[in-house]
């Protein structure tokens, strides 16, 4: 199992950061490459929610929320990836977890990605994916930091 962890302290209370992150329809504002989110099943907010993330490059990623701990943790797993009507995806058991922890008047946000490669070719793909995933996480945290700073400036 491969793992990538990125962490940053962002402006705003844990509740304010949670409010933004738990609103999946706003995911495209902070997560790189996401153009839109469509709720496809389960609760609108909470464990079991399913949604389709349409990516800028045409990829459609189906997610299922597998952890929901109000104001503290959200995790989702990729159920399937589709491009041009065909199933794709080289990594298996892909899970993204977001943990929040108060840090004075700010919030520490930790993004954790885990996955398995699946066989020798999968191990190579897993190794080459690590840097791309870390870069996406770092950009997501920078975007979140800017969104929260802008929100604090408007108060």
Notes on the structure:
The protein is α+β, with helices and mostly antiparallel strands. The protein has one domain: START domain (Alpha-D-Glucose-1,6-Bisphosphate, Chain A, domain 4, 2-Layer Sandwich). It contains two helices and eight strands, in the order E-H-E-E-E-E-E-E-E-H. Strands 1, 2, 3, 4, 5, 6, 7 and 8 form an eight-stranded antiparallel beta sheet that branches. The longest helix has 35 residues. The chain is globular, with a radius of gyration of 16 Å.
Structural domains: how many? 1
Low-confidence blocks of residues: none
Radius of gyration: 16 Å
* CATH class (first level) name: Alpha Beta
Average pLDDT, to the nearest integer? 91
Strand content: over 45%
Q: What separation lies between the terminal Cα atoms?
A: 43 Å
Task: Give me a quick take on this structure.
This protein is of the alpha+beta class.
Q: How are the secondary structure elements laid out?
A:
Blueprint: E1 2-11, H1 14-21, E2 34-41, E3 50-55, E4 60-69, E5 73-83, E6 86-88, E7 92-103, E8 106-116, H2 119-153
Antiparallel strand pairs: 1-8, 2-3, 3-4, 4-5, 5-6, 5-7, 7-8
Primary descriptors:
155 residues, alpha+beta, Alpha-D-Glucose-1,6-Bisphosphate, Chain A, domain 4, eight-stranded antiparallel β-sheet, 2 helices
